[in-house]
């Protein structure tokens, strides 16, 4: 395993400029995923999620296909709700590493040629480290750039973690309307890494629009997800549910439209 070493101060100005450019590239990739092609060779694979107990050694993997990991500079970025992507570190082809914007030596870069992958290790992982971490590789001068889909890191067992509250809302709608809407409101959770899935009769659907979490005045997060359903599906579906997964509080919460209707009828 190749452990990274520090860059010399003379190289920092050049790396700062390079990192600024890379941050801009990542911003475009995240903000305009349909316009930006992130699938050029090599292909970069990241697990969808990872969970670790506070204080433990966390590790995030980045596997490269159709190329050799030692032939690429590897960059890691962190995204949190409401904040721009933050550069974590760059691990150069020559083994050098540069950590950026306050990321300390808790964040370690390890190259693993034996399985063509890269690890971002976080020592003594903290609740506030919960975020989405993106791996990007480039072969020099930002040619042949590729990135993974990001890994949701959730840290559990620490202080300050808040379990989300979930409610479903339906407005007074014309039952004969061609399209009907359900709103899933998720509030008072921390940290801000959370997943929302809509299930119709037990099957996941993608007919929703989910707003990214926003930071509330009490330092917790909230978000909403709007499901749009054709009338015939609404009428013929015995189970319509919003499922919320928040790994930091070790909770999976499911609210069904039927539960919402029963509460409204009983009130």
UniProtKB/TrEMBL annotation:
Annotated Gene3D superfamilies: Immunoglobulins (2.60.40.10)
CDD domains: IgV (cd00099)
UniProt key word Transferase: no
Key words of the record: Disulfide bond, Glycoprotein
Domain Ig-like, residue spans: 42-154, 164-258
Pfam families associated with the record: C1-set, V-set
Glycoprotein is among the record's keywords: yes
Domain of life: Eukaryota
Protein name from the UniProt record: Ig-like domain-containing protein
